[in-house]
Amino acid sequence: MPDSPSIHYDKLFRVSLLIRKFEEKIIELYPSDKIQSPVHLSLGQEAVASGICACLTKKDLLFGTYRSHAYYIAKGGKLTEMMAELYGKSTGSNKGKAGSMHLADATVGMMGSSAVVASTIPHAVGAALASRNLNKDQLIVAVFGDGATDEGVYHESINFASLMKLPMLFVCENNGLAVHSSQKDRQSFNISTHANVYGIESEYISDGYNFCKIQKRTSENINLIKSNGRPRLLEIETFRYCEHVGPGEDFNDGYRSSSDFENWKSKDPLVNDKESIAKFIPGIREEIQNAVNFAEKSPWPKTEELLTDII
Fold it and tell me: What confidence tens digit (pLDDT) does each residue in 82-97 have?
């Protein structure tokens, strides 16, 4: 926490805390089976989403992953519609058909997420090509995990983006894991420096709990993209608090250390800044409860809607 908390810090803190408390509500609700979808939670990784999205406008497009709750909230999606979507209700952001892993809200530039690893990266590249060709004043952001960089389509995409000089930002959330496989066991390359091979300038941020630093570095990278029209990559180290998929913890499974978790948590402002937590928690709890109430009261989709919205 800075010595003199600013409005800037407060805004980033509140968005990050809203994400965390919303997902803690999901954990609370999950045993009831009201959440109609598997969930990949962002606990521990909230600062990346809040820092990145603080630099974007509604017209800027963000393409995410199946771990998309944080970005949906940080990009400005409605909490009520998100909870209804998780419930599978017709008032959800995607009429109850997308669930947790395919969240989208085009009205705020939150484009389709996907359960297929790395699959939205080429979508982002295509959007960037269209944006450049149509002279649109917008930034395209592709968000993915370190596991996505194992995929061929990632390499094809960054090569094409560099070759075509596309105005976009690649963001790698590096929690060091692809499900249970550690990065050191999967990759012979360094993600940030490897991007340079394709002519893409990159930056590595080690303290992925620091939303102020992430916001500042993102803003600087966006300015560079706008000045020279070339793509850039941000690799941000972070830490996943929960299991890969689901609301539980998995530190007894032997593939990662609880001491690493405790070390990361000791630096986490959403744990340690008690003053800001006390300041924002009443309003956040009310906002989340309103979303739950909205979802509970919302109608289920009708049978005749089953085959609508299919392309």
Answer: 999 999 999 999 999 9
Asked whether residue 223 carries a pLDDT value surpassing 90, the answer given is yes
Cα separation, 11 vs 203, in Å, equals 24
User: pTM for the complete prediction?
Assistant: 0.95
| Eight-class DSSP state of 156 | H
In this structure, the number of other CB atoms found within 10 A of the CB of residue 251 comes to: 15
Tokens of 96: 């109850």
Distance, CA of 76 to CA of 212 (rounded, Å): 18
Residue where the block lists tokens 């690893």: 117
In our burial notation (b when 16+ CB lie closer than 10 A, e otherwise), range 110-137 reads bbbbbeebbbbbbbbbebbbebbeeeee
- Do residues 89 and 295 lie in contact, with contact meaning Cβ atoms separated by under 8 Å? yes
- Using CA atoms, how far residue 140 sits from 52, 56, 57, 88, 156, in Å, is 12, 9, 11, 29, 17
Contact 81, 105 (CB under 8 A): yes
- AA identity, residue 229: G
Fold of 7-298: Rossmann fold (3.40.50)
Cβ within 8 Å of residue 196, ≥6 positions away: 202
The two tokens of residue 255 are 């593939």
Q: How far is it, in rounded angstroms, from Cα 57 to Cα 108?
A: 8
Distances (CA, A) of 297 to 80, 90, 92: 11, 11, 12
**Burial classification of residue 3, based on how many CB atoms lie within 10 Å of its CB (0-12 exposed, 13-18 middle, 19 or more buried):** exposed
State CA 105 to chain mean position distance.
13
Q: What is the pLDDT of residues 9-18, one digit of tens each?
A: 999 999 999 9
d(C-alpha 60, C-alpha 53), whole Å: 9
Q: Which residues contact 199 (CB under 8 A, 6 or more apart)?
A: 162, 230
Asked whether residue 142 carries a pLDDT value surpassing 80, the answer given is yes
The strand pairing partners of 144, in sequence order, are 172
Which sequence spans correspond to the domains of the chain? 7-298
